[in-house]
Specification:
It is built from 15 helices and 20 strands. 25% of the residues lie in helices and 16% in strands. It is of the alpha/beta class and 552 residues long. It has two domains: 367 residues, Glycosidases (TIM Barrel), CATH 3.20.20.80; 76 residues, Immunoglobulin-like (Sandwich), CATH 2.60.40. The structure holds alpha-D-glucopyranose. Alpha-D-glucopyranose binds next to loops.
């Protein structure tokens, strides 16, 4: 392991105002898969510290860590058994404090993932809660008597709720002769947020992390914290799967959630310059826009399901612009630890083998559209999904997938980061917890750093352009008519700064027209020699080419 060198904030980095997140590019690290420094096959915090220079040089402003708390690991870290500590598998408490300090020393921010809808069933709160009906934690989870008993004596669940991870949403606990509710695994009981003691305990935990210097939080499935107070059944509807055969109006999205969110934000606001982003559980941009405000952003999933088409992107960007208006900031999320990698998905949708070309065009969209970009680790290399043989599956729902419960095995997008073309992609000296992919032979940090035309070098150029051009970070958005249906073009403007961005979604050359005056000089592009428009505004884009143009 190398010691981080004398680091300074990149000179091009914008100053850090309290709304730094407006300028920021957030990089998501899945800690198990980033860099393993002790040879146990699992990534760790010292590994992240070791590669902070890499992230700074890439042009990342903030690092979001998927959960680092003690966990039995059934939902690979999203089943937390103690929210206020670091899992020893990732390092020590001192490693964490060093990570905060080293991140800040490089002018970057550190964001944690708060899993507050549920805990692990091994959490001390739940172990107490399940033990009897009259212990101090008895009402900390959602306990209910059975609706009745079947003829054979089997207790019947209190309502029709189902688990997102398959099967009933209720689990019988013989010690209490009651059911508890779980939106995810049986081993992930949902907390009772309507109990003020639960809210107080969560807020105290959050304050603890703020005191340790973290700059923000991602809130896991935040719109599910509150359920209908009476736990009424969800209305049934036609649908292909058990989950879709219900309208989820009672197990999430409760009207009083806005008040809970405001109380949470008031706590975070006691610490200036801390931002939060909520992960919508199954919601669209309409809902994301309503819940966005102040220093709080919201993820929605439209880009993640969008096909690779200029028309589809233009339509969804215009719709979110209408919904968010100029003052609320959308997020830009093309992939994460739950979804197919963007290079794989977009290239498949484009019907091309030139995965790198599509990965670079996607980078242009992420950097050029209005919103805060979230970049999932490895996307900057053009990493792709890895097929996992059935006997190596880790993701629990993937093991029980079937016709009534289709599930995309999330292991495929969680495979280790590729640092070198050497053994185990330079990720570990041991046996990696998930296999590394063939991609590592060509798509790794060492090889791509040496190639100016790699996906990684393209990301570095585009992220540098974003820092240079204020309009790309803070500018307004306006669609441009480029005159070709395969090209999506738009203008960003902030103060005196403007930028025109054009992306060719086709695997063939396209000739377009851009407004003269606004688009004279190419600042950066997916290709090493980005084209500038001719005197009439005519511009030829090569297959999957994207370009950022400015007026001067
Ligand atoms: C979120 C996480 C996902 C996890 C689930 C339950 O959707 O992103 O990985 O399985 O919540 O915690």
């Amino acid at each position: 392991m190398t010691e981080p060198g004398a680091a300074t904030a990149s000179p091009a980095a914008p100053a850090s105002p309290s709304d730094w997140w407006q300028d920021a590019v957030v990089y998501q690290i899945y800690p198990r898969s980033f860099l393993d420094t002790d040879g146990d096959g699992v990534g760790d915090l010292p590994g992240i510290i070791d590669r902070l220079d890499y992230l700074r040089d890439l042009g990342v402003d903030a690092v979001w860590l998927s959960p680092i708390y003690p966990s039995p690991g059934l939902d690979v870290g999203y089943d937390v058994s103690d929210h206020s500590r670091v899992d020893p598998i990732f390092g020590t408490e001192a490693d964490f404090d060093r990570l905060v300090a080293e991140t800040h020393r490089r002018g970057m921010k550190l964001v944690l993932d708060l899993v507050m809808n549920h805990t692990s069933d091994r959490h001390a709160w739940f172990e107490a809660s399940r033990s009897s009906r009259d212990n101090p934690y008895a009402d900390w989870y959602l306990w209910r008597d059975p609706a009745g008993y079947a003829a054979d004596g089997t207790p019947l669940p209190p309502n029709n709720w189902v688990s997102f991870f398959g099967g009933s949403g209720w689990q019988w606990e013989p010690r209490r002769n009651q059911f508890y509710e779980h939106t995810f695994l049986v081993e992930q009981p949902d907390l009772n947020w309507r109990n003020p003691q639960v809210e107080a305990a969560q807020m105290a935990m959050v304050r603890g992390w703020l005191e340790r210097g973290v700059d923000g939080f991602r809130l896991d499935v935040f719109n599910a914290f509150l359920k209908d107070p009476d736990l009424a059944s969800n209305p049934e509807q036609p649908g292909a799967t058990a989950w879709n055969r219900q309208r989820h109006v009672n197990d999430r999205d409760q009207p009083d959630f806005v008040d809970l969110l405001a109380r949470f934000r008031a706590l975070v606001d006691e610490y200036p310059g801390r931002f939060t982003v909520g992960e919508l559980f199954d919601g669209g941009p309409e809902q994301a826009a309503t819940m966005t405000g102040g220093d709080h952003l919201v993820f929605d999933w439209e880009f993640i399901t969008a096909p690779w088409s200029a028309a589809a992107f233009r339509e969804l960007v215009e719709r979110r612009e209408r919904l968010f208006g100029p003052d609320r900031r959308p997020t830009l999320v093309f992939s994460n630890h739950d979804q197919p990698r963007q290079a794989s998905r977009f290239a498949a949708s484009a019907g091309t083998d030139d995965i790198d070309a599509v990965a670079k065009a996607a980078a242009m969209l992420l950097v050029g559209l209005r919103g805060t970009p979230f970049l999932y680790f490895g996307e900057e290399l053009g990493m792709v999904d890895v097929a996992i043989p059935a006997d190596e599956i880790v993701d629990p729902p993937a093991r029980i997938a079937g016709p009534d419960f289709p599930w995309w095995n999330r292991d495929q997008c969680r495979t280790p980061m590729a640092w070198t073309s050497g053994p185990m992609a330079g990720f570990t000296t041991g046996r990696p917890w998930l296999r590394t992919g063939d991609y590592a032979r060509h798509h790794n940090v060492a090889a791509e750093s040496a190639d100016p035309d790699s996906v990684l070098s393209t990301y570095r150029r585009l992220l540098a352009a974003r820092r240079e051009v204020e309009a790309l970070r803070r500018g307004s958005y306006e669609t441009l008519d480029a005159g070709d249906s395969d090209v999506f073009a738009w203008r960003r403007a902030a103060g005196g700064s403007t930028a025109v961005v054009a992306v060719n979604f086709a695997a063939a050359e396209r000739r377009i027209r851009v407004p003269r005056g606004d688009a004279v000089r190419a600042v950066a592009g997916t290709h090493l020699d980005p084209p500038a428009p001719d005197a009439d505004g005519g511009l030829t884009l090569r297959p999957f080419e994207g370009v950022i143009l400015t007026s001067g």
